[in-house]
Amino acid sequence: MIKIHISDQCNACGACIRACPKGPRVYELRDGRLIVIDPSSCLGCTNCVSICPKNAIRLERI
User: Fold this and answer.
1) Could you state, in order of their start, the residue ranges of all structural domains in the chain?
2) Contact status, residue 34 vs residue 12, Cβ threshold 8 Å
3) What is the pTM of this model?
4) What is the pLDDT along the chain (62 residues), one digit of tens a residue?
5) Which CATH architecture is the domain 2-61 placed in?
6) The Cα angle at residue 54 between residues 52 and 55, in degrees rounded to 5
């Protein structure tokens, strides 16, 4: 299982959602913030981590 950490550096640009193979199932933009809606859908591919211009996403295997 993967735990997704989003730091305060996130500017909700949506790049992570577009880069993620399961994007809309994992993430959602809500009220100008990035929200993790289903971490169990995360494949652990790290596309979101690599694409984030603010280095605001970190994945942790638990």
Assistant:
1) 2-61
2) yes
3) 0.91
4) 899 999 999 999 999 999 999 999 999 999 999 999 999 999 999 999 999 999 999 999 99
5) 2-Layer Sandwich (3.30)
6) 65
